[in-house]
Amino acid sequence: MKVFPDDLLYSREHMWVRVDGDLATVGITDYAQEKLGEIISIELPEADTEIERDEPFGMLESAKASIELISPLSGEIISVNEDLTDDIGILNSDPHDTGWMIVIEMKDPSELDDLLDAQGYQDFIIQEVEGD
Q1: What are phi and psi of 38, to 5 degrees?
Q2: In what order do the strands lie in the sheet with 15-20?
Q3: Rounded to two decimals, what is the model's pTM?
């Protein structure tokens, strides 16, 4: 059963965003972790790193594939979830909460307008699956 929390925004690269003022917490969606299967390792940048929207900020490796993590927003990474280093399984068991990856101080909040709400993301997945 896929989960699409209504309080999140979603990118077409299967990342979720939780907005709190000018801060955005980012993680991988439940749908993406389910498609990847058991996640084996993650590489995340250091805090204080500048990132750009649509650019990779890390790597995720699973039993099935290695993927680049594509940033949904531009800004400065102010926090990285160190817990993932100790327990990578969090990404499979709780991707939308304790499985967060980074917190970005947004450079351009208008970039949020390009993200999808929960229903839009569900519709996007349906189109993607039907296109396969």
Answers
A1: -65, 120
A2: 9-10, 15-20, 23-28, 102-106, 75-80, 50-51
A3: 0.95
pLDDT in tens, 11-48: 999 999 999 999 999 999 999 999 999 999 999 999 99
Would you kindly state where each structural domain of the chain is located, as residue ranges? Answer: 9-108
Domain 9-108 has CATH 2.40.50.100: yes
- What is the 3-state secondary structure of the chain? CCCCCCCCEECCCCEEEEEECCEEEEEECHHHHHHHCCEEEEECCCCCCEECCCCEEEEEEECCCEEEEECCCCEEEEEECCHHHHCCCHHHHCCCCCCCCEEEEECCHHHHHHCECHHHHHHHHHHHHHHC
